Amino acid sequence: MPFDLILRGGRVIDPSQKLDAVTDVAFAAGKVAAVGRELKADPATEVRDVSGLIVSPGIIDLHTHVYWGGTSLGIDAEEFCRNSGVTTSVDTGSAGPGNFAGFRKHVIEPSQVRILAYLHVSHAGIFGFSDRVMVGESEELRLMNPVDAARVADENRDLIVGIKVRVGLHASGTSGLVPLEIALEVAEQVGMPLMAHIDHPPPSYEEVLARLRPGDVLTHAFRPFPNTPATAQGTVKKVVLEARERGVLFDIGHGKGSFAFKTARAMLANGFYPDTISSDIHQLCIDGPAFDQVTTMSKFLCMGMSLPDVIAASTVNAAMALRRPELGSLKPGSVGDATLLSIRQGQFDYVDVVGEHLTGDRKIASEGVVIGGRWWHPR
Fold first, then answer.
1. Which NCBIfam families does the entry mention (predicted)?
2. Secondary structure class of 80 (helix, strand, coil)
3. Which listed site, 98, 318, 350, 351, has its alpha carbon 20 to 30 Å from 362?
4. Residue pLDDT, tens place only, 340-374
C-alpha cells in the first residue's frame, strides 16, 4: 500500500516501543504504516522534512473540558489541540447523562480532533463553573443519576471511556464519600474505570484512595495542601504507595487549583512519577496557570523528569488508562496520530496554582500534528 504521508528524519521518541532514534514514520489509510530509515515515497506521497524536531505518538491530554458552548467551563477543542500538540482530548465529566447527547452531536462528532469522555455521574455534569457562579454539582445528591449514567455509558461505549465524579469541599460540600460510592457503583455496573477528582477535605486523600480500584484514576494527584500526597517530612504517604501497588493510577490534572511545585518536588524526589500528565484545561485556567498541555509537560521536564518519561506520561500511559492500546503509539497498525515537538532553550517562567514561580531552561513547543494519517495544523 502506498504511503499517504512520510515524516522524514525526525527524532522519534515512542516509549511504547522503547524507541528513541532518528528515523522516518509513514502513514497510510489512517494508520501508522511503517517506522524506518529512508522509507520510499510514491509520487502521491506527501513528504515532510521534520529533521531537528521530535516525533512522538499523538499526545493524549487525559483531563480536559471541551464541551464548548454547552458548559461555561468548556474551551474549543480544535483550537486548544492545534496549539498544544494534542491529538486526543479526553473530556472529564463536563457532561452527564442529561446532556451527553448534545455534547456528542454538537461538539464531539463534528470535531476534527478525537474527543473521548468520562461521563459524569451527576445529571448535568459540571454545570455551574465560572468566575461568577461556582456550584459543586456533587453537593446536591438529588443530581446524582446512576441509572441513566449507566445507560448512557453503555450506549456510547465508542466515546465514553469511564465514569467521572468530583468530591471535596468545593465539589461535594459535606456529602463526603457518598457521590464517590454512587459513581463506583455505576463504574462497576458498566465495567469501566472511574476518574475521581479531589479538592479540599472532606473527604480526605486517604479516604478516596482507599476506595479506588485497580485501573481507576485519581486526578489532581499532586495537589497542594490540604489533601496532598506528601507528608510534612517530604515523604510519600503510605496510603499513596499502597494504592499504586494495587494499580490505582495517578494523574496530574493541573487546572486552576490542583498542581503545586512543592508537592511535585517531594513526589519526584521519592521516585514517585505521575502515571499521566494532563492539563485539566478549562476557561478559568487556559490563560494561566495551566495554559496548555505542552506547558504542563514542560514543568515536569524542568523538574527533572526525562523527556521520554514526560512523553510516556502523555501517550502510552494515557492510552493504557483509557484502555485504548491503539492510541499513544507509533507501532505499525496503530491509529495514525503523531505530534511534532521542539525543545526550546532559554529562561522560561512557570507558575503553579499557589503562585510559586519556577524558572526553567527548557520549554516543549508544539510544531504540528498528524491526525488519522494526515497533516493537521491549520492556521
1. PRK09237.1
2. helix
3. 318
4. 999 999 999 999 999 999 999 999 999 999 999 99
